[in-house]
Amino acid sequence: MRAPTLLAILLLAACGGPAAPTRRDDVGMSAAAPAPTQVMAAGPVQAEAAITGLIPADLAMCFVEPGRPATLRWSTAARVADGGAPFVIRDYAGRQVDAGSAQVDAAGAVTIARTFARGWYEIEFPAARQAFGVVALEAQPGGRDPFFCMDSALSWLETDPARRDGLVRILARCGIAMSRERLGLGSINPSPGVYTWEHPQRRYDSLRALYAAQGVPILEMLHGGGRHHEVVKDVWFPSDYPRLAESNLAQTAHWGAGWGGVEIENEPDLHGLPAEQYVGVVKAASWAHLQSGSAVPLVAGVFGGIPPGPYFDACAANGMLADCDAVSFHSYDRADSVEAMVARYRVWLAASGREALPLWHSECGWPWVKGPDRAPAAQDADSAVEIAFKGVESRVCGVARYFPFVYVHYEEGPKCFGMMGRDGTPLRSMAAYAASVAVLSGARYAGDLQGVDGPARLARVFARDGDPQCVVALYAGA
Fold first, then answer.
1. How would you write the chain as a 3-class SS string?
2. Per-residue pLDDT tens digits for 166-219
């Protein structure tokens, strides 16, 4: 390959930290942050006003066009008097780059007007002890790259309609090509012939209408079942296949127009049950899928482990690979483990006669410690480098789609996996992933850059046909 002209260098280097976990219940984190960007200077901090309980007026406001004036607004639950609300703005590295006093009107609306350079920022209101993320990045044009997706799980993790609306608009703005959602089959089909499409708490119908309005298709993960599907003790998966297929047909008729794919169950290999139980569910869904005439891919596997192993062999021997259009898998190791993992999947598929079957990386994350509303800076930077660069490595290895886990705030055991804070505004991990979407959309892996000195362990080159400029993605790891 001729020497590239460097259009951009995506420097994603995590420094320090123990060995990578093999599952979500092991964690070790720390990181270095990149150099700062700057925002327009503000006036001096005014006398502090007692402003508390700040709520973003619209979550989508936290993604702004760089170099253009932006107005950010919050409502406030409590204040002593009208006046200003002091704030501080910090950059990706945590350095203060701006300060000022937000306007507060008689109705309690808090407003900051600023122009941001490209980058990620955190706006802190010290009196309220609250902080909010801002990403200054150009909105992505149409024609989204199908590789860049998101494991959003809004059906389960975010039920507020206004917050959902802003979050879905952010996905569309960032160029996300598909959003992974989850359905509890028993909750929407609690008894034979009865369907609660909206659901009183989860509002499934309303959420899917928001996705449709923004043109973001869904990877619908069909999960579980009700008693009439014969989900009983010691039988994790539905075993009444005719009723399961009937339910699948009804879902496809109702929601199929908004689907980009259908994924069958979640991490079946981790339940300690025979593979045959899972493969039966895949076959029932496959039959219903064919009967419906749906053209969207049916995705099976959804594995939490890595082949080889008897579970994988039993799935293949019982015909799972003949009844699906793609195989999905999950991982929670560091980025430099992706290549070997994908290679093992390809060896397994080749031995099963389906080497070319597409692979979807449908769940992939790096957590931070449970407790605070927003990730501590070092842990946030570590999550950012791993999430963004596992996307790079998945692209390098020919994976068809990549879904970081998880879009919104989610606590699991002692950890949190959110790429947004509890407030719904972006953490560094969301900013890093959005930046990688912007830099790498439409680019193909062209090879590795040779002769790179220093801490970089991976130096991946990406190019676009007809473009003399290239992008180099660098990774230092632990």
1. CCCCEEEEEEEECCCCCCCCCCCCCCCCCCCCCCCCCCECCCCCCCCCCCEEEEEECCHHHHEECCCCEEEEEEEEEEECCCEEEEEEEECCCCCEEEEEEEEECCCCEEEEEEEECCEEEEEEECCCCEEEEEEECCCCCCCCCCCECEECCHHHHCCCHHHHHHHHHHHHHCCCCCEEEEEEHHHHCCECCECCCCCCCCCHHHHHHHHHHHCCCEEEEEECCCHHHCCECCECCCCCHHHHHHHHHHHHHHHHHHEEEEEECCCHHHCCCCHHHHHHHHHHHHHHHHHHCCCCCEEEEEECCCCCCHHHHHHHHCCHHHHCCEEEEEECCCHHHHHHHHHHHHHHHHHCCCCCCCEEEEEECCCEECCCCCCCHHHHHHHHHHHHHHHHHHHHCCCCEEEEECCCCCEECCEECCCECCCCCECHHHHHHHHHHHHHCCCEEEEECCCCCCCCCEEEEEECCCCCEEEEEEECCC
2. 999 999 999 999 999 998 899 999 999 999 999 998 999 999 999 999 999 999
